[in-house]
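thought: fold this chain, then report.
action: predict
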Amino acid sequence: MQRTLLTFGLLSWAFASNAQEFATSIKSSEVVPGIYLVEGADGFAGGNITLLVGDDQVVLIDDGVEPIAAALIESVADIAGRPVDFVINTHVHGDHVGSNAAYANAGAVVIAHDNIRKRLETDATLAGGIDGLPHITFSDEVTFHAGGHTAKVFHIAAAHTDGDAAIQFPEVNVIHAADLHFNYLFPFIDLDNGGSVAGYVAGQRRIIALADDDTIIIPGHGPLASKADLQVALDMLIDAEARIKVLVDQGKTQDEVLAANPLADYHEEWNWGFISTERMTTTLYRSLTAGAE
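observation:
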């Protein structure tokens, strides 16, 4: 069931909006000196990938879907001037860990939260096979020091999933928020893999508290963002949940809530192929009625 859900997510993103196929080439843009945003140039590559190029180490944050692995490895090595030393996984979904096995077989060390390895042990296909299991895991936080750059990796509990991590680069005022931020898209809160609305809200608040007006936020999906953009996303989610709670408190069924369309005001800007307005409504309804008879 988990595999079916995650595969559906990948294919929905890939084909729903622009009938894109998986990328065969990779593009990059320098966010700040030494830190790059890596994306598919001609199709879907997965979630946003961040590359840290230090004087002595190369660190990749997430590694996209499995079909792009060969192109990603070649392109990133060209950008960095040498192979990747470490891959950091921000969560378990296949659009962020799909090239794990390929990178591990190329000599990289894969690092992730404890819960990511636990979940991949039950379905390693998400990471390209058994070789994609993380080599090193952490429970709370871990810090990388790579040639003048510091990357502070910290766990955010029960948010997008139960194994989420965000990464702060304090010297250059950049935060990789991963799927704690879908930039002007309804977020995917994976209730079936340990995620929760309350945890997602808390995680976004934690990232906002680390940011200032000049912080560059790299979202899991969508263009580069600011603290203000993340605040807009947080405000939307809080308001969306409140709108649905009113109807839940009135005893409305899920079908009745969907018919009332309480998120209609957000549809034009936030609806997209995978997390439609209807699916966002259903997620919030499920969260609010969890455990109810």
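thought: worth noting. Residues 2-235 form a domain with the Metallo-beta-lactamase; Chain A fold (CATH 3.60.15.10).
final: tokens above.
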